Amino acid sequence: MSWKERNKAFWFYDFSLLDKLFLHLRLHIVKKHVNFSGKSVLDVGCGYNATNLQYIKKNYTPTSLAALDLNLNTEFLNTLGIESVIGNLEEGVVAGKKYDIILATAILEHIQNDQNFVTSCYEMLNEGGLLVITTPSIWSQPVLEFLAYKIHLIEEVEIRDHKRYYDKKMLVKIMAEAWFKAENVKHEYFELGMNNFILAKKWN
User: Fold this and answer.
1) How far apart are CA 63 and CA 26, in angstroms?
2) What 8-state DSSP symbol labels residue 166?
3) 135 forms bridges with which residues in the sheet?
4) Are the CB atoms for 190 and 26 separated by under 8 Å?
5) What is the DSSP string of 157-186?
6) For the chain, how big is the Rg over CA atoms in Å?
7) pLDDT digits over 126-177, tens only?
8) Which among 36, 76, 79, 95 has the fewest CB atoms less than 10 Å away?
9) Residue 68 forms beta bridges with which residues?
10) Sign of CA pseudo-dihedral 86, 203, 27, 81
11) Residues 143/151, Cβ–Cβ less than 8 Å
12) What is the C-alpha to C-alpha distance for residues 25 and 20, in angstroms, rounded to an integer?
């Protein structure tokens, strides 16, 4: 995959109508479970313009917002008071800070070493902090591939970059190996079972 293709697919300079729908559905389930006001928030794999953080800034009163990705619109984000952090959590903890909430929406499926990624998120959470994950389910694979490869409604290069798809058992195992206690991990399916939602709290 070329750098140009990666920019186009993962950092969303332009959203298609379907992209906007998927973003709306992800935000809907996240805001149903999470109140960002009074919290420090890190969005991992947030995209070039950190769209989720723009929404949070507009609708909540967080204490701080930080965007983490391989490439960011730093000048623009600075004007919004959003900190830019360039890095890759798959390779370990970045920035040396801890946060009350870490968002990882529609990113885990693109990560080669998903276990390292989730463990790094755990280490960057404050005690009592929340990790929020959305990632496509195993049942979504044929649907997404049809939308991408056959009728071209979503970015083909992004779907081809998916390393795997998940079910509840797979995700719960990853969370346990990242030291999240089972009683502090909530899972549910949404989008008619096409997507996973994880809300995990860090308690020692």
Assistant:
1) 22
2) B
3) 196
4) no
5) HHHHT----B-HHHHHHHHHHTT--GGGEE
6) 16
7) 999 999 999 999 999 999 999 999 998 888 888 999 999 999 999 999 999 9
8) 79
9) 44, 85
10) negative
11) no
12) 9
Instruction: Provide the pLDDT for residue 12.
Output: 47
- Judge contact between 44 and 103, C-beta under 8 A: yes
pLDDT tens for residues 3-27?
A: 344 444 454 446 677 777 778 888 9
Least Cα distance to 74 among 90, 89, 86 occurs for 86
The three-state secondary structure class of 10 is helix
Give 199's strand partners: 132, 186
Q: Residue 169, exposed/middle/buried by CB under 10 A (0-12, 13-18, 19+)?
A: exposed
Contact status, residue 194 vs residue 167, Cβ threshold 8 Å: no
**Structure-token pair, residue 204:** 């020692």
Determine the residue type at 163. K
Which tokens sit at 46? 């947030």
87 confidence band (pLDDT: 50, 70, 90): confident
The pLDDT tens digits for 48-78 are: 999 999 999 999 999 999 999 988 999 999 9
Question: In what helix (H) or strand (E) does residue 133 lie, and over which residues does it extend?
Answer: strand 125-136
